[in-house]
Write a structure and sequence with these properties.
With 328 residues, the protein is α/β, with parallel strands linked by helices. The protein folds into 2 domains: 78 residues, DNA polymerase, domain 1 (Orthogonal Bundle); 238 residues, Metal-dependent hydrolases (TIM Barrel, Alpha-Beta Barrel), CATH 3.20.20. α1 packs antiparallel against α2 and α1 runs parallel beside α6. It starts with a helix and ends with a helix. The model has no long low-confidence stretch (mean pLDDT 96).
Amino acid sequence: MDPAAALLEIAALLERERASRYRAKAFRQAAATFQDLPDDVRADPVRLRAAKGIGDSTFEVIRQAQAGEVPRYLIELRGEVEPELTSQLRPLLRGDLHAHTDWSDGTTPIGTMVDAARALGHEYLAITDHSPRLRVARGLSAERLREQIPLVRGASDSGLRVLAGIEVDILEDGALDQEPDLLDELDIVVASVHSKLRMDAAGMTARMLAAVASGRANVLGHCTGRLVQGDRGTRPPSDFDARAVFAACAEHGVAVEINSRPERQDPPDELIAIALDEGCLFSIDSDAHAPGQLSLLDHGALRAERAGVPAARIVTTWGVDRLLAWAE
């Protein structure tokens, strides 16, 4: 087995299971280090182990792969990691409108996320790093976002369209946390609440309605903000008038995100039913913060299928030209 391929597969499996980002990053770094080493260093165990970026665990994986074996750690992970879930809807998904890079709180550069999306067969991927107010996630100032946009669009090729986007915070008054003219330059705007999640229902409803009616939001991201499992613990959903918010989404053509992260499962099933009843569009997104998490779309697809969401109302089943025409 190719040692670099083994290291990258381990990293992707760790990312999919939301393991420590530092563990996954160590395996990605080791793969890059190994690929850059001269052949004579790769073949010399002493110099290989001494190479910066190669640790005990990654060295063991490399040596087992060099010996023609499937590394034991990879075998272990393949057995432990939850298998990808199957649904009739998943093969219909053509892209992903919510993904992060190391420009904010993702773990890898734009190119690595793009390569992973290409490997999954995506036709498009929106890079949606955070906005300035979310300082803990290194949200992008207007200057940094302007710097990022050409790099994102420049990563496109004939097989994959990379869309310039943002996950913009919905501020307490409903304003969007970025310069309006700059939001107008983007292909995709995912608007999400990240702060004051426990504000009263009337205030939260007004806040979300203002964002939806702004004319600049394309997707309403993880609308309740809840957490149902995982290392970050649990968090109750925000309280708001879901019927009013989803009616506004339908009126303004804003898609309700079905967030694919298992720790979110957002919106809850009962809110998906209300959004369906109100005539909403939907966007099944990974909210990936690492390459291996792009495959989490299978979770969102299965939830949407079980909730009876028609494929025609899921914007991420559309081709890129139709998607961009809607987003405008």
